[in-house]
Sequence to fold (229 residues):
Amino acid sequence: MFRLDPAGEGTVRLVGRLDGAEAERALPSFAALEGSIVADCSELDYISSAGIGVILATLQRLTRSGHTFRLHPVQPRVRNVFRYAGLADMLGIE
Amino acid sequence: MLVRRFPRAIGSLPLLVAFVREFFAERGWDAEHAYDVDLVLEELFTNMVRHARGGTSEIEVGLAADGDALTLRLCDRGVEPWDPEQAPSVDVNRPLEERRPGGLGIHFIRQIARDLRFEHLNGDTIVTAVLAVPR
Fold:
């Protein structure tokens, strides 16, 4: 299961597994994000290409409107997938 | 090889995760190290669900460990020849606005797997990926 929880002004928490079964269900939650966002991914246990697609679309949308989208902190194995995708720097992943 | 059949549907993904956990538990392996296996299996399985034409209602998945190699084998019966390796490589260095998510799954597998083979025999597509045993 995957959840996107509000965590205060401009921050959200991503929790669980953002896989092919969850990514489509998560689309409305990501589409509702506005302004600059920092997403706490410390409890995001897994992401696949389907989840990366949702994150990429959100990053592109927020960037087009002059905002930022940052993921911090991110678990090491999830971080590897963002690095494979060439998106780690764009998302401020350390 | 531990073999099981799963309905040809994205909704089967939680069943695949449980299958990998069962395989790990049988060997006393820590499920904390299952990430790469989950990822390669999900990307191959979803490719079969989304792109293979024809086929039966189930996809067969096998897992085996031998020495330091872990082998995943997916068999899709009665499908048209299909080889995602023929798809163009993804350029992950393109500017943000030019990026598209398509093709990332196979790109991820290429980063992780030691070996990846697609065969089409007698109407069946068989995909074999070999990974390092998770530590």
User: Anything to note?
Assistant: Chain A is about 40% helix and 30% strand. Helices of chain A lie at 20-31, 49-64, 76-84. The beta strands of chain A are 2-6, 11-18, 37-47, 69-74. The two ends of chain A are 26 Å apart (CA to CA).
